[in-house]
Amino acid sequence: MDNNIQTNNQGQQPNQQPAPQYIIVKQQSNAVGKAGFIMTLFALLFYIIPVIHYINLFLVPIAVICCIIGLFKKPRTWAVIGIILNLIMFGIFYACTSILYSLANQ
User: Fold this and answer.
1) Which pTM was predicted?
2) How far apart are CA 79 and CA 49, in angstroms?
3) pLDDT, tens digit, 9 for 90 and up, residues 77-100
C-alpha cells in the first residue's frame, strides 16, 4: 500500500467529492382511466355516425366500468373526464329519445 495517500475518517481521499446520488421518481399513470376516456371518445364519434351507432350498446357500458375503476386509482383526471362525457352523452341520448317519443305519440 502507498503510505503517501491519506484518507479521512470515511475512507475517501482528501480532495475527492462523494459520488452524486440520483433520485428516480416514477410517474404514476392510470391506464384504466385513460382507456375509459378513449372509449368514451370513440362512443361520441360512433354516436354521431348513424349506421354504426349500435356499437355504443357495447362500448359505453365498458367505458363507464373502466372509468369507475379508474376513479379508485391516482391520477383520476382521465377517469373523471370520461365519466363527465358519459353523463353528457346519456343526457343527450335521453333528451333526443324523449323528444322523438313525444313526437311519435302526437
Assistant:
1) 0.67
2) 25
3) 999 999 999 999 889 888 888 898
